[in-house]
Design a protein that fits this description.
The complex is a heterodimer of chains A (359) and B (388). Chain A has 359 residues and is α+β, with helices and mostly antiparallel strands. Chain A folds into three domains: 109 residues, Butyryl-Coa Dehydrogenase, subunit A, domain 1 (Orthogonal Bundle), CATH 1.10.540; 89 residues, Butyryl-CoA Dehydrogenase, subunit A, domain 2 (Beta Barrel); 143 residues, Up-down Bundle (Butyryl-CoA Dehydrogenase, subunit A, domain 3), CATH 1.20.140. Helix content of chain A is 51%, strand content 14%. Chain A has eleven helices and ten strands. Chain A has a four-stranded mixed β-sheet with strand order 1-4-5-8, covered by helices on one side. In chain A, a hairpin with a 2-residue loop joins strand 4 and strand 5. Chain A is globular. In chain A, 57% of the residues are buried. With 388 residues, chain B is α+β, with helices and mostly antiparallel strands. Chain B has eleven helices and eight strands. Among the domains of chain B are: 65 residues, no CATH class; 150 residues, Up-down Bundle (Butyryl-CoA Dehydrogenase, subunit A, domain 3). In chain B, helix 7 runs parallel beside helix 9 and helix 9 runs antiparallel to helix 11. Chain B is globular and about 70 Å long. In chain B, strand 6 and strand 7 form a beta hairpin. Classes of the chains: A alpha+beta (359), B alpha+beta (388). At the A-B interface, strand 9, helix 9, helix 10 and helix 11 of A face helix 8, helix 9, helix 10 and helix 11 of B. Chain A: Keywords: FAD, Flavoprotein, Oxidoreductase. Chain A: Belongs to the acyl-CoA dehydrogenase family.
Chain lengths: 359, 388
């Protein structure tokens, strides 16, 4: 039965993830980490992926996973968004895992190794790739089965052991050691992107078409909405606390009606973001075509997360412009996520197609 | 003095003055009254209408020029305040090296606890004979590490309501006890500073205006600041809209119908804002800026934010990158510098610095539209008794 609420099991999962993140990934520690040589927190990732088993949520029990659904994944993403935790959950346990689940071949038993947390993977497409217009143009498969080419702006590639690379209309698995992965300065400090270069890299073909890649991009877009919800919720909660505490003109600034009305509007945006994100997660977990629910969620949540983060900065005033305050990590995550897996404009256009509103 | 006379004077000055030594040329230009023609004679001006400055600039094109980035606070804020409230000695002492750029100025107004509510500021100045002893912390001070002087507002009487206990000073940035520390921003760089004032001794002749009159003096500075930030009309299609337009023209593969409509909407908004700025300039040509200047700064901030946000979105994959997060001190304020991601983040400050957009909306609604003000709980309470 479909539901936009959270089940008891989902709430328990949330509480467990939140507990780990509160313990191991405070905003201050994330800020310190993103400036280090290792922006992704692989210690935290090991705890989440291996010890808690979140890496295998989408993987069937027969392959060592939890056999859960997109709904549980969405709850984890809400919490990861709420803490901008620099872990490759979306890129490995959602994007790469979905592509692999759709592939007919899994020669190295990659799914079991992903489920156990022994292995981390990344889908080698630009993070901005849209589920609607994706074309693999930059990598080609040679006659000898090796791959050559370059993919830019790949999220999560720097910490992946295996890269799933679309090339010449098929999907290949490449050991990361056979690729050059160069992290570039990224707008989102907590999910840096990298350039992946392949020079006659040995590869194993796992699917003969790109339908699984498109399914992964659609799933990723739909579930990214839950991460955006988490980002927006942190910004809303943090701003709310600040408005109660910060005094100007001898009163809490949250007592000014102009501020209260803005907060009420933001709250309403987030209420609807939650419903949209739940709608997409539920549709992705079900049997029917999730396309419209995904397009709606991404068209709404991508912009809402940016808007709430921008308003949070403004309502914090000068302190929000400082590096020292963690708010900028959320703004940068929100802005980069808006571009990820299709822009809100791309998703609106898809709504036009699916809701019979032609241009 | 009319335009023809001013042009003749500028031409004669140009012919007679060698431009090989930049500083000597600027000093001579100040002494000839061609620095800012609306200032009085002897203070770099000719007592002429403000709009005739344009004629001077045209005649002196190609000669040594000021550094508008480094001198922005001095020229835009300190100078009009000194002119309005300074003693003859202060005007003579400060205005010439301020204009030539020999002395750089910064602004010590905002504090961690006093942003939108500037009048609640807590930096204390206590009289000690012919001197004042200043203690406190200021923030968002651009150029503090270059500055020779600062304009400073401090509390001289905590026992009266907040607006009445303030006094305005010129602060000697080389005095013992002045320390500027870089303040890193979300862009990665430090364009501003925190300034710590510890037992800083300022002679009474650095006071600007009467003791207790600091709020009124500061209003002159702030009105000028808002015009300086938002009042540069520029040319059609220039500034931030020009940068987005350039990306749009050069990169047809990025275009979508959705982005096109949004770009056109912003282009129209940029153009009507520019025209309103031109009109405001014409109205104000001879006088001091009024509260209408707040509207321009409000529009500038929201437009910059919309345009830079759109540009990052337009660039898609490139928008996921960033040029450089290195922590460094920037030499001057540049809203337009570097890549689209930088401009997006920097523009977030436009609605905070120099009066938040919320405060500007209050100014417009109360002082332009004449709407009643909110009930004020802090007006008649001594500053020291305010809740905070």
């Amino acid at each position: 039965m479909t539901s936009l609420l959270y089940s008891e099991v989902e709430e328990e999962l949330r509480a467990a993830v939140r507990g780990v993140l509160a313990d191991k990934s405070s905003p201050a520690s994330v800020l310190a980490r993103v400036e280090s040589d290792a922006p992704y927190d692989m210690g935290l990732w090991k705890t989440l992926a291996a010890d808690m088993g979140v890496a295998g949520l989408l993987i069937p029990e027969s392959r060592g996973g939890a056999g859960a659904s997109a709904r549980e994944v969405a709850v984890v993403l809400e919490e990861l968004g709420r803490s901008v935790a620099p872990v490759p959950f979306l890129t490995s346990a959602v994007l790469a895992t979905t592509a692999l689940l759709a592939a007919p071949e899994d020669p190295g038993d990659l799914l079991s190794r992903l489920a156990s947390g022994d292995l981390t993977a990344a889908l080698a497409v630009p993070f901005s790739a849209s589920p609607y217009g994706f074309r693999d143009e930059t990598v080609t498969a040679g006659a000898d089965g090796t791959l050559s080419g370059r993919v830019t702006a790949v999220a999560g590639a720097a910490v992946a052991d295996v890269l799933l690379v679309p090339a010449s209309g098929a999907l290949y698995a490449v050991e990361a050691g056979h690729a050059t992965v160069e992290t570039v300065p990224s707008l989102d400090l907590t999910r840096p992107i990298a350039t992946v270069t392949l020079w006659s890299a040995p590869a194993v073909r796992i699917a003969s078409d790109l339908s699984g890649v498109r399914r992964a991009l659609l799933t990723g877009a739909g579930l990214l909405a839950s991460e955006q919800l988490g980002v927006a919720k942190w910004c809303l909660d943090t701003t709310l606390a600040y408005l109660k505490e910060r005094h100007q003109f001898a009163r809490p600034i949250g007592s000014f009606q102009a501020i209260k009305h803005r907060m009420a509007d933001l709250w309403l945006d987030v209420v609807r973001a939650r419903a949209a994100a739940r709608g997409a997660a539920d549709a992705l977990a079900g049997e029917e075509d999730p396309s419209l629910a995904v397009a709606v969620a991404q068209a709404w949540c991508g912009d809402v997360a940016v808007h709430v983060a921008e308003e949070a900065l403004q309502l914090h005033g000068g302190i929000g412009m400082t590096w020292e305050h963690p708010l900028h990590l959320f703004l940068k995550r929100a802005k980069a996520a808006q571009l990820a897996l299709g822009t809100p404009g791309d998703h609106r256009q898809q709504v036009g197609v699916l809701a019979d509103l032609p241009a | 003095m009319n335009e023809d006379e001013i042009r003749a004077r500028a031409r004669a000055f140009r012919e007679a003055t060698p431009a090989s030594d930049r500083l000597a040329f600027l000093r001579a230009r100040f002494d000839a009254g061609l620095a800012w023609v609306h200032f009085p004679e002897g203070l770099g001006g000719l007592g002429a209408p403000r709009e005739l400055q344009l004629a001077v600039e045209q005649e002196l094109e190609g000669t040594p020029q000021l550094d508008p980035g480094l001198q922005a606070i001095g020229l835009g804020m300190a100078a009009p305040t000194i002119l309005a409230f300074g003693t003859e000695e202060q005007k003579k002492r400060f205005l010439r090296p301020l204009w030539t750029g020999e002395e750089i100025w910064c602004q010590l107004f905002s504090e961690p606890g006093a942003g939108s509510d500037l009048a609640t500021l807590a930096t204390r100045a206590v009289r000690d004979g012919d001197e004042w002893v200043v203690d406190g912390q200021k923030v968002w001070t651009s150029g503090a590490h270059h500055a020779r002087w600062a304009i400073l507002v401090a509390r001289t009487d905590p026992d009266v309501p907040k607006h009445r206990g303030l006094t305005y000073f010129v602060c000697d940035m080389h005095a013992p006890g002045v320390e500027a520390r870089p303040l890193r921003q979300i862009t990665g760089e430090a364009e501003f500073n925190e300034v710590f004032l510890t037992g800083v001794r300022l002679p009474d002749d650095l006071r600007l205006g009467a003791v207790g009159d600091g709020w009124r003096v500061a209003q002159t500075t702030l009105m000028n600041e808002r015009v300086a930030i938002g009042g540069n009309a520029g040319r059609r299609g220039g500034g931030m809209i020009g940068m987005v337009a350039q990306t749009w023209r050069e990169r047809p593969e990025l275009r979508t119908p959705d982005l096109h409509q949004r770009l056109l909407r912003l282009w129209v908004e940029a153009e009507v804002t520019r025209l309103a700025g031109v009109r405001l300039r014409e109205q104000l040509a001879a006088g001091q800026p009024g509260p209408e200047g707040s509207g321009m700064k409000l529009a500038f901030a929201s437009l910059n934010q919309a345009l830079t946000g759109l540009e990052v979105e337009l660039r898609r994959e490139e928008g996921l990158g960033y040029d450089d997060w290195t922590f460094r001190r920037s030499e001057s304020v540049d809203f337009a510098g570097r890549d689209a991601g930088y401009r997006y983040l920097r523009a977030k400050g436009n609605s905070i610095e120099g009066g938040t957009s919320e405060i500007l909306r209050n100014i417009i609604s109360e002082r332009v539209l004449g709407l009643p003000s909110e009930p004020r709980v802090d007006k008649d309470i001594p500053w020291k008794d305010l809740p905070r």
